[in-house]
Design a protein that fits this description.
Strand content: 15-25%
Number of helices: 18
Largest sheet: 6 strands, parallel
Oligomer: single chain
Helix content: 40-55%
Radius of gyration: 21 Å
CATH class of the largest domain: Alpha Beta
Order of helices and strands: EHEHHHEHEHEHEHHEHEHEHEHEHHEHHH
CATH architecture of the largest domain: 3-Layer(aba) Sandwich
Structural class: alpha/beta
Distance between the termini: 10 Å
CATH superfamily of the largest domain: Glycogen Phosphorylase B
Number of domains: 2
Number of strands: 12
């Protein structure tokens, strides 16, 4: 057995998980040799990417078809890197389609390498049959929620529940300092716009969020627009944002989240991060119409897409998905949160309750995940 561990992440959210996991693994055992495929955050932890993953942050049927060649090349390069390194364990982080292909290829080529999936597919929301597929492809699953485990029990896939990673990496932002740096007045209200981290999200979601934000802005003299731009899509965000919007780097996102009055956000991990800072959200999302039709007809069976709402089994934060995702609906949902302090505080209270159900206050996910990975390696 070697003490080599190989981490694979194909997009920005996975890169953050991989960086957290790499840091804890090194703390647990400094003798470990880590290698991987990922982005800038993993590289900052010493894992220079051994394959090109640019352009893999795709979502939806049509986008997936268009990216098929890039995905295939990246899978081949990733598998080749893994086989060259010869690790004892490979950790495949999020990105269901990409990491499944990598797992299947590695298992066929080197069955002695242990495979760990970190964050499973959302079998509780759609396509529960993926549980059987995953169980056949990997040796262990590190999942976020307790309610995922029963989907894998029939297939004897060992599972470790780590809780939501955003809860474990939570760092309290300094909202007052952020507002001071931006030169906002004490009575200014801040509307945070978060259009996503994928090019397809910026393209489909960004324009609607900005139309709503500008409508809200025109009706209020003291509203200030702020956008936190993910590095990979910063240029696209800059093209869409109106001149009055303040562009904030990801490095001060916690302060921006804490300093906001209300956020308009694309559905995703960021919604949990914002809620942790005590800011109420209005959440929107839109897929390509072919993908949406297929999802509604055959795939998606859940009531909610936002994890806070799933945990609470209630629409704690307004969700405006696909046909409901319009500027008018966003304005209608956000206006009371900006103008009515009681409504604002009530939604924050309900968000806090949902976060508690998600495991707020427990051990960091990266620590639990690291222990599971080391257990697989040593077992």
């Amino acid at each position: 057995m070697t003490n080599k561990i190989f981490l694979v992440a194909a997009e920005s959210s996975g890169d953050a998980l991989g960086a957290d996991l790499a840091r804890v693994l090194k703390e647990r055992d400094p003798s470990l040799k880590l290698a991987g495929v990922g982005g800038a955050l993993m590289e900052a932890e010493g894992l220079k990417s051994l394959a090109d993953i640019s352009g893999l942050a795709v979502l939806g049927f049509i986008d997936g078809l268009l990216a098929y060649k890039r995905v295939k090349i990246a899978v081949e390069a990733t598998v080749a890197a893994i086989l060259a390194v010869k690790p004892s364990v490979v950790v495949l982080i999020d990105s269901w389609g990409f990491t499944l292909r990598v797992a299947q290829r590695v298992r066929a080529s080197a069955p002695g390498i242990k495979l760990v999936k970190y964050v499973g597919p959302q079998v509780w929301a759609s396509r529960p049959g993926r549980a059987k597929t995953l169980a056949a492809a990997v040796d262990h699953l590190i999942c976020i929620h307790d309610f995922e485990v029963p989907f894998y029990t029939p297939y004897n896939l060992p599972c470790t529940v780590c809780g939501h990673p955003a809860l474990g990496r939570f760092k309290q932002g300094d909202g007052a300092a952020f507002r001071d740096r931006q030169g906002f007045a004490a009575d200014d209200k801040v509307l945070l716009v978060l259009p996503g981290s994928r090019p397809s999200e910026i393209r489909r979601i960004g324009p609607t969020l900005w139309r709503a934000a500008e409508t809200l802005d025109r009706a209020r003299d003291n509203l200030r627009l702020v956008v936190v731009a993910a590095g990979a899509v910063r240029a696209a965000v800059l093209e869409q944002a109106p001149p009055s919007a303040r562009i904030v780097d990801e490095r001060e996102k916690e302060d921006a989240f804490a300093g906001a009055t209300v956020a308009l956000a694309a559905s995703g991990t960021v919604t949990t991060e914002v809620a942790l800072q005590g800011t109420p959200l209005v959440i929107g999302y839109k897929l390509g119409w072919i993908t949406w039709a297929l999802a509604r007809a055959f795939l998606f069976k859940g009531k909610f897409t936002t994890l806070m709402n799933v945990a609470a089994d209630a629409e704690v934060a307004p969700e405006l998905i696909q046909t409901r995702f319009t500027p008018a609906n966003l304005v209608k949902a956000a206006a009371p949160l900006l103008d009515d302090e009681a409504a604002h505080d009530e939604q924050v209270r309900r968000q806090d309750e949902a976060l508690a159900l998600m495991g707020r206050g427990g051990r960091p996910a990266a620590e639990i995940a690291a222990d599971a990975v080391l257990g697989v390696m040593r077992g």
